[in-house]
Amino acid sequence: MTTFEEVCCGLRVGQSVPDFEMDTYEPEKGDFGKFSMAEQKKKNRWTVLFFYPADFTFV
């Protein structure tokens, strides 16, 4: 059975972000690229993640 916390609340402070990849737009290159959380962890980089729906959306 799935608990409320598993469905509702996502990650909590101190928990690790699961590895994921996503497409990105890189303005310096004027092209698309990829972001890999596993690669960030491998390089021991600090990473701040935020999601802002619809901003910079190509319409």
Provide an overview of this structure:
This protein has a domain at 19-44. Helix content is 19%, strand content 20%. The protein has 2 helices and 2 strands, in the order αββα. A two-stranded antiparallel ribbon has the order 1-2. A hairpin with a 4-residue loop joins strand 1 (21-26) and strand 2. The protein is extended, with a radius of gyration of 15 Å. The termini are far apart.
Ends distance: 40 Å
**What does the main sheet amount to?**
2 strands, antiparallel
**Mean pLDDT metric:** 79
Q: Please report the total strand number as a whole number.
A: 2
Structural class of the helices, strands and pairings? alpha+beta
Strand order of the largest sheet: 1-2
Strand fraction equals 15-25%
Helix-strand topology string: HEEH
Helix percent band: 10-25%
Low-confidence stretches: none
CA radius of gyration is 15 Å
Shape: extended
Count of helical stretches: 2
Q: Summary?
A:
This protein is α+β, with helices and mostly antiparallel strands and 59 residues long.
What features would you highlight for this structure?
extended; alpha+beta; 59 residues; 2 helices
Write the layout of secondary structure elements.
Blueprint: H1 4-8, E1 21-26, E2 31-36, H2 37-42
